[in-house]
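Predict the structure of MFS transporter.
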Amino acid sequence: MSGFLLVISTTGFARLAYGVLMPFMQADLNMNYTQAGLLATTISLGFLAISPVAGVLALKFGMKKVIMAGGFLVTGSFILLSFSNSFYLYTLIMFFCGAGSAFVFSPIMSLLVIQFQKEKGLVLGVLLSGVGSGMLLSGLMTTYLIQYFPVWEWRAIWIIFAIISIIVTFLSWIVLKEPGNRASNKDDRNLRVAHVYKNQKIVRVGIIYFLVGVAYLIPILFQTSFMIHSGISEKVAGSLFSISGLFTIIGGPIWGMVSDKVGRKKSLLVALAFCVMGGIIPVVNDHIISFIASAILFGFSIGGLMVLVQAMAAERSLPYLVPAVLGFVTIFFATGQLLGPFLAGAIIEQLGGVREAYVFAVFIFVTALIITSFVSEKEKVVLEP
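Done. Here is the predicted structure for MFS transporter.
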């Protein structure tokens, strides 16, 4: 439960809630779409810069210490976001917000995957359902609570995030236990970590994760704006953002359980196909029903993408190297997150609408689907002791 709550606060709030808060921040801070996209990109830059470091530090100092550091850093970032008025300062704060998220993301996944070896998919699914929970809660709070703060408005939401985050971090400090390290000695550990970075099977999984990172944030960040510009009210758009988050919560555990039974590859191919459909539907017809269908497909599928790719990567690693492996493939994921929002913002500015950004996301999902089709289900641990 503490791991689930950590994912809510350090991924759902820290990295994804900006999507639903973005229109309010744009209006208040007079940002254009390129600047708004840049802030999202900066979050991903912080996540990218720290992800490989987080995996190595988790092996050296312990996963729990690294996780706690990330939780406190995210909390501090939320507090600063609620008080700043400078776009440049926001850019710096967003970097630290992404960095704190990285300190938590891979280590918490690794800690629990190591403890539940036979149910990797289910465990990752439950943990990553915290992403959707964060989307759901942020959508609800923004839609229904912001009206009670006429002066602070969106800033009050960041303060609420900070309060939740600090409570969850202290709870995790009490509950989480450090697993044993199976590395025989320091030299062996360093040799194995180096081998992780050279293994082509793990790199291929990383490339798929990169493409997922590029594409999945586009509907999350720009869905609300797409709907508003299509004539749908802000309240309905915010509610639909929450519905998408609800399906992400449901999707994670379901995809995890299914993949434990039928395999990661088959499950990932279907999830990517759903994402392609979710992107095409509102492009063809921007009616409210199309957005509902898209939100459900994206929410349910995105809830599984990270679960399936991380489980696929973890299966190709010895247990004690899972933090390094997940940290390594997360570099690819974070690089995609870094590029995706910025490219989407630029596409919107240059080509005239969010519709074109959705087309770009569909193209990336199709590419990921093609590469996934070449992955072998028979690949298991490729780092032999």
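The mean pLDDT is 81.
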